[in-house]
Amino acid sequence: MSSLADKRILLGVGGGIAAYKSADLVRRLLERGADVRVVMTAGAREFVQPLTFQALSGNPVHTDLLDPAAEAAMGHIELAKWADLVLVAPASANIMARLAAGMADDLLSTLCLATEAPLALAPAMNQAMWRHPATTANAATLCERGAALLGPDAGSQACGDIGPGRMLEPQALAAEVERLFAPVQSLAGKCVAITAGPTREALDPVRFLSNHSSGKMGFALAAAAQRAGAEVTLIAGPVSLPTPPGVKRIDVVDAREMREAAERAADFCDLFIGAAAVADFRPAEVAVQKIKKEDGRDSDSLALVKNPDIVAGIAARTSRRPFTVGFAAETEKVEEHARGKLLRKKLDLIIANDVSAADGGFNSDRNAVTIIDSSGATQLPSALKTELADQLIGIISARAFPG
Ligand code: PMT
Question: Which of 83, 177, 296, 302 has its CA 20 to 30 A from that of 338?
């Protein structure tokens, strides 16, 4: 999936011959799943008709700062807040100068000043204008303020000159924009093993002991770790979730199978995350045939034996020990009990979740967690597990692999 999926891009089209390329750029951004709205300067409208951009983007084109009809539909401040990114392409020498000076005398410059979204500029101008010290200084000022300069390219220009100042081709520009949204590769070159889901402990051929874990948290972590550049092995209990793209999956059923797979994966991994809800106990005996209820008995008892503690086993390694992270599923005194597990299991870090909360824990799309290690506790408020996973991977990788 492209990092542009569902991203809201406000495309500011400046006056310049390269404005025609921006029509194709809209298509390239849409192909990658972005939602695009277009703002055109008066200069841009000399080169391309707004109707072209309206037809391609599927949205009305914004042109005037003081147009009551446009303001009633989506005012300029609303538009500035809507954007995840403001991309000015082509960014002429004039636009760059006005943005560097902080002017707000037309719709595009006002939006650039009013938005809190990041700003990206695709310069397009004559090579001498690009090399002029005034433009160089303006570009430096904009970059110092956090703007991203995408290009320019060098080559033959519409005016016949040859040199730097061509706007990047739409395909290359869309790829650059995609890179702006790509998650930081904080786990590049690292190998990560993650357990997820429940285990099932057989009682007889048709019954088992288990829990309500859906695997959503562990699978989201696996996807996030893969996005962060890791080679990921996901050891999954019985769940009905698709394997995240690019992740190696090993399916297991019970705790002993999960431990075997986890130990094998840990031999080669730098980071181990135990997100699975491993059954603490299993039936002492597994009946070969279905257990019959004994006539005349109103109760029965079940002998249980303890399962191996998978994450504690990995944390106890004296060689080939990965940075080891556990989860703590708690229903009361969440932080206190989680700290106990951190110490008892000798983990590097533990992620505590209150599984009694209505909006989180087992089989929910959301979760709220507290990250605990020797340096203290950090709370992450309720969020979709998919989003939370990216935050967790960011924090874990910074603690596991500082610098
Ligand atoms: O799968 P979901 O529906 O998305 O739900 C997510 C979750 C609630 C299952 C997950 O966020 C979570 O909390 N996982 C850990 C659940 C659990 O078993 O917690 P625990 O407190 O009992 O175990 C502490 C840690 O020891 C965990 O990392 C667990 O994986 C590990 N453990 C426990 C027992 C055991 N025999 N071996 C283990 O490795």
Answer: 302
Ligand 1, residues at Cβ distance < 6 Å: 195, 197, 213-218, 255, 274-278, 280, 307, 309-311, 326-329, 341, 353, 355, 361-363
Q: Which architecture does CATH list for 8-181?
A: 3-Layer(aba) Sandwich (3.40)
Ligand 1 atom with minimal separation from the 353 CA? 13
What's the pTM? Answer: 0.71
Nearest to 9 by CA among 94, 131, 111: 111
The domain segmentation of the chain, as residue ranges, is 8-181, 191-286+302-400
Strand partners, 373: 376
The answer to whether the 8-181 and 191-286+302-400 domains have the same CATH topology is yes
The DSSP-derived string for 277-345 is B--SEEES---SSPPPPPTT-S-----EEEPP-HHHHHHT-SSSPPEEEEEEEESSSHHHHHHHHHHHT
CATH superfamily ID and name for 191-286+302-400 = CoaB-like (3.40.50.10300)
